[in-house]
Amino acid sequence: MPALDFIRDDIKAMTAYHVADLPKNFIKLDAMESPYHPFAGSPELLNEWAALLAQADVHLYPNPAAGGLQEALREAFDIPETAAVALGNGSDELIQFISLLSAKPGATMLALEPSFVMYRQNAALFGMNYVGVPLNEDFTLDLPAVLAAIETHNPALVFIAYPNNPTGVRFKREEIEAVIRAAKGIVVVDEAYGAFSDDSFLPLAGSVDNLVVMRTVSKIGFAGIRIGYAAGSTNIMNELAKILPPYNMNQLSLATAKFALRHFEVINNNVLKLKAERERMFAGLSAIGRLKAFPSKANFITVRVPDAAELFETLKQNKILIKKLHGNHPLLDQCVRLTIGSPEQNDAVLNIIRKLYA
Ligand code: PMP
Predict the structure, then answer these.
(1) Is 235 left (phi over 0), alpha (psi -120 to 50) or beta?
(2) What is the position in ligand 1's atom list of the atom closest to the CA of 93?
């Protein structure tokens, strides 16, 4: 029997998460990366960072618990003393292990649709039932539907991206609070885009038994170092700690993240620039009558256009890659998602869109 026959049929039927392989000269606005290398603007910072990396104990296994990053994160982001913190190789890894943690036979995961596709994929991977509650047409939360689904399915795990991907909308805080109160299982508030959103559930981490707040450094300039973190009640986080791989982080990333937090003003300046650019892009897109730009609190804007495939191809011909959402979910009809880039990159996008649709 060929080795392939031993592999789970449900996995063979899956499609891999698509990671674009691009020529260097493309403008990449498909994956919410920052256009700015955080240290590139400063030779001193680059040198200091390089020296730190040169000193990193790459011959030794990392000890994330003792390495100081958790403490630095607590301090930088005011994570309450009562919360326990876990580190993941990207928040993707934390999504995976929190799902595994709650995947008792017959357990249900609840998420919103459309939202981050990896929630559903992990439910499938770990044999959980999946309930996807549709958003309203304007991508706001249908709270009565979510509460009804919680009542009916008693989910072991609820994922809410706050702000949501791929729509950019930040749900109302009171709605998320209602979900946390109603759910008996773990509620993960995924704040991957939290740095751009002016609100956070981190201050509640540790004091609400079923709450886990998840964040990442990926969208604020460090997608390449793969560091995510989660803060929650010790009850949950102690169990999560048992199943995370012991050496899931690496010395170079840990050293880089600690260094970054010591120079947080550089990162924060870039976040502020991107937020200003988001507002400028939103105004520019909203001025074009044939488009509908959805209000975003993230570092991207989702737009409904007359023909998503046409815009995607036109931008691609101009060496700009965006994300075509059309076809992923009925609510995303003719939608595309534009990551906010540098002012020059955004102007390039806006000019092409104006030419097509203004
Ligand atoms: N959560 C959400 C909502 C996301 O959009 C993403 C990235 N697309 C992630 C988590 C994963 O981020 P990372 O693994 O880079 O931390």
Answers:
(1) alpha
(2) 14
In this structure, are residues 295 and 282 in contact, taking their beta carbons and an 8 Å threshold? yes
The tokens describing 250, both together, are 């690496």
pLDDT category at 22 given cuts 50, 70, 90 is confident
288 to each of 39, 230, 284, 323, 337, how far by Cα in Å?
Answer: 36, 40, 7, 20, 16
| Nearest alpha-carbon partner for 182 in 128, 146, 214, 136 | 146
Distance 288 CA to ligand 1 centre (A): 30
121 CA from centroid of ligand 1 (Å) = 13
- Which atom of ligand 1 lies closest to the CA of 218? 15
The pTM assigned to this predicted structure is 0.97
Atom 12, ligand 1: residue with shortest CA distance? 91
Q: From the CA of 60, how far away is ligand 1's center (Å)? A: 28
Of 2-11, 60-69, 308-317, where does mean pLDDT reach its minimum?
Answer: 60-69
For ligand 1, residues with CB inside 6 Å are 90-92, 116, 161, 165, 190, 192, 216, 218, 223, 228
Per-residue confidence band for 16, with pLDDT thresholds at 50, 70 and 90: confident
224-238 confidence digits (pLDDT tens):
999 999 999 999 999
Q: What is the DSSP letter of 18?
A: P
Cα(26) to centroid(ligand 1), Å: 22
Asked if 193 and 32 touch (Cβ cutoff 8 Å), the reply is: yes
> What's the one-letter identity of residue 94?
L
